[in-house]
């Protein structure tokens, strides 16, 4: 896996878990034209709620390609610059299939999109209920394929 300075078909996004025995360092999101269209539609649906102080966000059943741990020999921080929580990466499905995954069987995959256009992915251990989650990211940065954000 290699960091890319322009849009690619994959995004690496920091993730973690509250588990005392399992671990997770990142997710990979596969960027397709269909996924980008769907993300834009979801973002557009926020418009009527932007001034509603009681509105928290929209939740969607959605998941990244997978939740992963770095293999021996590298750390996620090697791909991210200081303050970044995501980056475009060059990888492929074969490489992803070789990455270590959490021990939990993950279930109930969700993407939550807040009224400010920030999103995060969550999933839960099927038998443990332990939460796995990503850092928040600004969807407009992904849609524009431009500058990285720090999750703020």
Keywords:
single chain, 152 residues, alpha+beta, 10-stranded antiparallel sheet, 34% strand, globular
Can you give a write-up of this model?
Strand 2 (10-17) and strand 3 form a beta hairpin. With 152 residues, the chain is of the alpha+beta class. It has one domain (2-144). The longest helix has 12 residues, at 33-44. It has helices spanning 33-44, 93-98, 139-144, and strands at residues 2-3, 10-17, 26-30, 57-61, 66-68, 86-90, 106-114, 118-125, 131-134, 137-138. The radius of gyration is 15 Å and the shape is globular.
How would you concisely characterize the structure shown here?
This protein has three helices and ten strands, in the order E-E-E-H-E-E-E-H-E-E-E-E-H. It is α+β, with helices and mostly antiparallel strands. It has one domain (2-144).
Helical coverage, percent range: 10-25%
Mean pLDDT: 92
Largest sheet: 10 strands, antiparallel
Tell me the Rg in angstroms.
Answer: 15 Å
Q: What structural class should be given to the helix and strand makeup?
A: alpha+beta
- Overall 3D form: globular
Number of helices: 3
Extended strand count: 10
Distance between the termini: 26 Å
Low-pLDDT stretches: none
Strand content: 25-35%
Order of helices and strands: EEEHEEEHEEEEH
Indicate how many domains the architecture comprises: 1
What's the structural blueprint in terms of helices and strands?
Blueprint lengths: L1 E2 L6 E8 L8 E5 L2 H12 L12 E5 L4 E3 L17 E5 L2 H6 L7 E9 L3 E8 L5 E4 L2 E2 H6 L8
Antiparallel strand pairs: 1-6, 2-3, 2-6, 2-9, 3-5, 4-7, 7-8, 8-9, 8-10
């Amino acid at each position: 896996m290699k960091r890319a300075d322009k849009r690619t078909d994959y995004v690496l996004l920091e993730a973690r878990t509250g588990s005392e025995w399992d671990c997770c360092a990142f997710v990979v999101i596969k960027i397709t034209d269909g996924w980008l269209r769907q993300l834009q539609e979801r973002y557009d649906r926020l418009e009527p709620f932007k001034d509603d102080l009681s509105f928290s966000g929209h939740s969607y059943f959605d998941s990244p390609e997978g939740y992963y741990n770095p293999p021996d020999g590298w750390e996620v921080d090697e791909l991210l610059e200081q303050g970044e929580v995501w980056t475009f990466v060059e990888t492929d499905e074969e490489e992803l299939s070789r990455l270590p995954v959490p021990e939990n069987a993950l279930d109930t995959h969700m993407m939550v999109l807040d009224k400010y256009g920030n999103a995060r992915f969550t999933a839960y251990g099927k038998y443990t209920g332990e939460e796995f989650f990503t850092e928040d990211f600004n969807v407009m940065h992904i849609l524009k394929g431009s500058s990285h954000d720090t999750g703020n």
